[in-house]
Amino acid sequence: NVKLTTNHGDIVxxxxxxxxxxxxxxxxxxxxxxxYENTVFHRVIGNFMVQGxxxxxGMKEKKDKRPSIQNEADNGLPNKKYSVAMARTMEPHSASxxxxxNVADNAFLNHSAKTVQGWGYAVFGEVIExxxxxxKIKGVATSSKAG
Length: 147
Description:
alpha+beta; Cyclophilin; seven-stranded antiparallel beta sheet; two-stranded antiparallel ribbon; isomerase; Cyclophilin-like_dom_sf; Cyclophilin-type_PPIase_dom
């Protein structure tokens, strides 16, 4: 398990190494390297998800130190409320450090085909403690800032 300490409280993630071994190993490497220290949930969409792992306060981008990983979204784990998945670009195999917590059931993010449109987003764990904290984060006031 991994504990995320936020200014709203703690969130405990249970990682699924059996179904998402590459993704979990990658996430743990970032944790061990201290990459997530002092990062923010920089993308918060109240009825969709909260995304973090890529920016420090003031929207200062963290530099990725590791190569992107193979997308494991075909592992059968659904993008359901309080599941944790890897963020990525439009390129299916581009996930590196950023992750998101689903705050709703987002079946449209699930793997449907091994195509650019169908790959989906790899779920690799779930929130087992601190769902109330996730709910606080999804409700924070947000603003837009061009990078």
